[in-house]
Amino acid sequence: MGINVAILFGYNGAGFSGLERVKGEKAVESIVLSALATLTGKASGTESVTVECLSLGLQSLVNQPLFFTLLCVCYTTLLDLLTQIINISRAAATEEGEHAARQLLSLEIAADDIKIPTPDALNALLPEAIRIFKVVAPTAEGFSARRSCETRTYEYLIPTYAFMAPNPAAGYDYVASSVSKEDLDNMYPDADPEVDRSGEGSLFTTLRRLGRSRSRSLGRSNSRGRSANRSSVPPEPLLDQNSPTTPTTASGGPLNFFASLTRRRSTTKASQPNISETNSIANLIPAASNSSPASSIDEPPQFYDPIDLPYRGADTLRGYRMTEEQLDIVRSIVAIYRGTHNWHNYVPGANQDDQRCFMRIINIESGSPEIHNGMEWLRIKVQAKAMARFQFRRMMALLVLVVRTNTPRSVIANSFGISKVNIPEAPSAMQIFHQPLYTNYNAVAGPGAAINFDDEKSQVEKFRKQQIHEAIYAEERESLAFEDWLRDIDRVAFLYKYFLNARGLIGVQNAYVRGAIGGVDESLIYNVR
Predict the structure, then answer these.
(1) String of DSSP letters for 304-350
(2) What cellular-component terms does GO give this entry (predicted)?
(3) Around Cβ 481, how many Cβ atoms within 10 Å?
């Protein structure tokens, strides 16, 4: 008959190839199953010490004969266990470097006499980066960690220096301006960041909003770059979509409609640099055209070299504090993400006609800025029935790029249309799979076979805080890896200017990297000739 087992665990994904086991790579799942194989009663005590060796990866031990024999014995035991596993399922897959505070692995093992170990016994064989919280055996018949899961919650941590304006040499169409809260509300009347449409309360139970003024008043009165006097510009009327014909006059035509979707900018047009007068690569980047984006279809391809940008000071980055206006814009953007959209631009290799890309974001929220190790951080959580690979990281990447380049928020809504946008993935080290929910299953299965982390809440929170959050904060303060990612983006800014522009409209991409990429992260380059 066999037995169904559910393993509830968490892990810090740094140094792992991901959750799912891949031959020859260091995966979280392989290490957990290796520990399980060691304690099923088939492996001897000597073999248990090889689990740590196995976690280093098979390839790294080929040239170490002293450990290779022991490794093969333990690996054979693991293979024996895997041959008896009929089904294996995960609550959610995580990619290389991504973490999980509450993960679930379900197994259907054919053997009836298998001995299921306790969490303490498993943890004794596992590295500190992986913790088993609970083992449920047996589970109800038909339980699957993936199919039985109703919703999944993810979290992303952003160091707020990511919202600093980019170096002018990058050539973005940046205009320093101030958008009032009233303007944001008028632009997106249905995207209210204060409204929870999930029906299950705030995703930040420990950061429940106490009123925006109170949450930002502590230690933020002297935030760097805060606008003392904000200009309030009356919202321009939107185009009447019920009109039988499209107006063409200056007062009510398309130009007025597009203007209502973009930020307010200076009426003084900056003069374009004379290419013959300077050899700066930044000046060779084409500026955003005032004509319709469709006009660029006939323009010939443009080739550029990566821009040589200086590094920003570490103390400046660590000491940066986001402004109230930036926080309002972030919350406005996450509210636009909420709901059902066509996410084809956020799913690698997807087509706009693929019906699988129509997915619903049940809830998404931004917390209040927090200080950790002298740096300010912003946490964003999202809840959905399912998320595609890299989808959440692309959502966070576009959010960061829009805020830091002062691109109108309309580009977020436009990204759900038919136009193709090549959005990069934000760094994996900041993403955490927060929690799966099995409410309907638990109601049927009963308390004995229920799948939840309630009884282990203190243990889970301790692991999440110490092994994941604090590790991320410490590593980022030391390495400033998010700045490296931003700098790689800025070095090839010409690849993104067709949607990161002053109008928030998606144009046609006709910029390419010329030849070698000069040290730019290859994962960010998709147009190379």
Answers:
(1) EPPP--PPPPHHHHHT----HHHHHHHHHHHHHHSEEEE-GGGSTT-
(2) nucleus
(3) 15
Burial label for 22, CB within 10 Å (0-12, 13-18, 19+), is exposed
Q: Residues in the chain with pLDDT < 50?
A: 42-77, 188-190, 193-199, 206-296, 516-519, 527-529
d(CA 155, CA 434): 6
The tokens for 10 are 């968490």
Q: Which residue has the tokens 């303007």?
A: 183
CB-CB contact of 10 with 131 (8 Å): yes
Q: How many whole angstroms separate alpha carbon 485 and alpha carbon 143?
A: 40
The three state secondary structure string of 212-266 is: HHHHHHCCCCCCCCCCCCCCCCCCCCCCCCCCCCCCCCCCCCHHHHHHHHCCCCC
Contact, 19 vs 100, CB < 8 A?
yes
Helix/strand/coil percent split, the chain, to 5: 35, 15, 50
Burial 154-164 (b: 16+ CB within 10 A, else e): bbbbbbbbbbb
Q: Which amino acid is at 182?
A: E
Helix, coil or strand: residue 360 = strand
pLDDT at residue number 3? 84
User: What confidence score (pLDDT) does residue 82 get?
Assistant: 55
Tell me which long-range contacts 256-260 makes (C-beta under 8 A, separation of at least 24).
258/503, 258/505, 260/187, 260/235, 260/236
Pair type for strands 99-109 and 431-437: parallel
CB-CB contact of 334 with 156 (8 Å): no
Burial 284-309 (b: 16+ CB within 10 A, else e): bbbebeeeebeeeeeeeeebbbbbeb
The whole-model pTM stands at 0.75
> What per-residue confidence (pLDDT) applies to 272?
33
Asked if 487 and 309 touch (Cβ cutoff 8 Å), the reply is yes
Report the relative pairing of strands 511-513 and 302-304 from DSSP bridges. Answer: parallel
CA distances (Å), origin 465, targets 96, 144, 368, 452, 478: 20, 28, 17, 19, 18
pLDDT, residue 273, reads 34
Return phi, psi of residue 175, to 5°. -130, 120
DSSP secondary structure string for all residues of 99-121: EEEEEEEEEEES-SSPPPPPHHH
CB 372: neighbour CB atoms within 10 A?
Answer: 16
DSSP state of 411: H
For residues 119 and 529, what is the distance between their CA atoms, to the nearest angstrom? 53
What is the per-residue pLDDT for 176? 64
